Request: fold
Amino acid sequence: MKIHPIHILGSNAYIIETENELYLIDAGYPGFEKRILKKVHSLEKKLRLIILTHAHFDHYKSAAAMRKATGALIGIHSLDADYLCQGTTPLDSVSILGLFGKLILPLAEKITKPPPTPPDILFEDNDSLDKYGLDAKIIHTPGHTSKIIRRQKVEKIPLTINE
Reply:
């Protein structure tokens, strides 16, 4: 298994490469799908699943474009699904930037208005990703938001993906 980080203006996306398939952790700002798709195409494997850690615009606003371009399914923790369906970011969950974040976020959302992005899969804590071909499980880790998740490798050495 290899992990390919993709740096996206203060945020990150990660492509997990297994022997046969690819998995995307977060999709970044709108318009960044081109950068991610370039990396996906260079790896010459199918993107199977887009795992969104939480519903902030810098993590999911290219997810719909990625799904359209690749056919990959989108999954997110069930607590954040409504925000994806509405194409919004939960203002009450912005903890890292404090008041600055609460002032800037509404403006950023208007500028980066995406279409609603209903998820295909709703994750819960400790859900296994085996049925999607990935030896990992979902770990609910509130902090940056109350709904954030991580993907953890199931083998003896855990691998955590976070911002």
Remarks:
- The beta strands are 2-8, 11-17, 21-25, 46-52, 73-77, 121-123, 136-140, 149-153.
- Confidence is low (pLDDT under 50) at residues 151-163.
